[in-house]
Amino acid sequence: MQIPAWVKGRSYKAVLLSTLFAAAAYLLTVLWTGWSEVRQAIIAIGFSGLAIALVLSLLNYMLRFVRWQLYLQTLGYPIRIWPSLRIYLAGFALTTTPGKAGELLRSLLLQRHSVPLQHSVSAFFSERLSDLLAVTGLAFLGFWLYPQAQLLIGGATLILLILYWLVLRGRLIHWCCNRVKSWSRIHQLMNNVQQLLGQVQRCHTVGLMTITTCLSLVAWAAEAWAFHLILESLGYQIPISIAVFIYAVSMLAGALSFMPGGLGGAEAMMIALLLWQDVPAGPAVAATVVIRLATLWFAVLLGLMALLNLKVSRSD
Q1: How far does the chain reach from its first CA to its final CA, in angstroms?
Q2: Cβ–Cβ under 8 Å, residues 108 and 11
């Protein structure tokens, strides 16, 4: 497997600029939908409230990084913590870009540590599976309370079951690979997928899955707790279980919308669920924007800082 040429050089810079474009578009959307409500919400939450939300977001990133290290170690690449952390955070810089560019950037950076692309993509795929499993599990906290979300949660569960069946069994891919031997390009693609799934299987032993699932659940529950605290700061006493449900379902909606960073889908679902809980439209929009700034956009900021640090280190 090769790194696509567009990830390198000037094309890579264009991808990075698209992150800044996404941030500008998001800011304009906030200004259009009601900057005054967002400003009032930030004032109501206060410095300490925002600090707590950011710390809980950091906890999310660090727990996911520990999981990432476990995957790399299982695949035979025990990279030292500091270089690995910088690479992991740098991937967040491209969270809002199309085509999962963040994954390709992380893989490109890991190649400098002799990690083959196939193995780094296997770790990334294992991460996404673990995230989907954890967020879907958290969403089940309110499965019976909001029937409109049952189709979304059920669809995510079905996707999970299919993906895990493909990963843990792998027979379908093997069967397809044998059937297309006469078509060289398709056969090569299927063979790459088969090898990729073989590496992913190494990250899904019972013992490792138990550890990584626990890490994922705590990581995403931390951000959901930050969402709950933000709502409390705004004067809305929504039970923690409902707040976790709203946050998890919103993350699912964003993921299944296939938009970079879940932009649009996550926000729309979160606002709709807050309205369901009798939160007025203005505060609902404000709470949604604040939690996304403290989670998604905070990650992008850290990613850009890590990416700049890596560039400076390389030029020294």
Answers
A1: 30
A2: no
The residue among 270, 299, 225, 229 whose CA lies nearest residue 44 is 229
CA 51 to chain CA mean position, Å? 21
Strand, helix or coil for residue 85: helix
pTM, full prediction: 0.86
| Cβ 117 vs Cβ 3: under 8 Å | yes
The residues near 223 (Cβ < 8 Å, ≥ 6 apart) are 56, 57, 60, 247, 291, 295
Sign of the CA dihedral running 184, 187, 193, 194: negative
- State pLDDT tens for residues 238-260: 999 999 999 999 999 988 876 66
Distance CA 180, CA 165 (A): 22
Give the residue among 48, 33, 45 at the shortest CA–CA distance from 235.
45
Alpha carbons 235 and 247: distance in angstroms, whole number: 18
